[in-house]
Amino acid sequence: MASSQETFNKRDQEKKRLKKRIDKQQKLADRKANSQGGGLDNMIAYVDEYGNITDTPPDPSTRKKIDAGSIEIGVPKRETVESPAIRKGRVEFFNQAKGFGFIKESDSQEKFFVHANSLVEEIREGDMVSFELERGFKGMSAVRVNKV
């Protein structure tokens, strides 16, 4: 006696697949029956001047004319601010052994790094100095430092 090639499990899986396919076709038919239609026009959305999404197109009479040349893309150009080339300040800290220190500018009270290679003459803490600024690795640093 030979048994059937199809087992109960295979028949059960085939029934599930068939039921799934029928359910999918039923959902598709329901969507088609309940759709509003209208095609692409029904799906288009518009954005008003305040950024709100609406279903009505904007009124062309209220459109504002914008000059494309007045639009700046990127960072606006930096205005040149003339700063004095030679600044004055006081040496707040200077380590002779390591060869660096900080100068506090008299006008803005900003501190600037100074290295021993940038000195014209030897300085100590508390000395009044004149200096120029250059961009260093970690910001502005004092160069061409002279005692006043």
Walk me through the structure:
21% of the residues lie in helices and 28% in strands. It has two helices and seven strands. The strands form two sheets. The protein has a five-stranded mixed beta barrel. A hairpin with a 2-residue loop joins strand 6 and strand 7 (139-147). It is elongated. The mean pLDDT is 87.
For the termini, the CA-CA separation is 118 Å
Radius of gyration: 39 Å
Question: Taking strands numbered 1, 2, ... along the chain, how are they ordered across the largest sheet?
Answer: 3-4-5-7-6
Number of helices: 2
Strand content: 25-35%
* Secondary-structure class: alpha+beta
Stretches where pLDDT is under 50 for at least 5 consecutive residues are none
Percent helix, as a range, is: 10-25%
How would a crystallographer describe the biggest sheet?
5 strands, mixed, barrel
Run of helices and strands: HHEEEEEEE
The whole-number mean of residue pLDDT values reads 87
Q: What overall form do the CA principal axes indicate?
A: elongated
Q: How many individual β-strands? A: 7
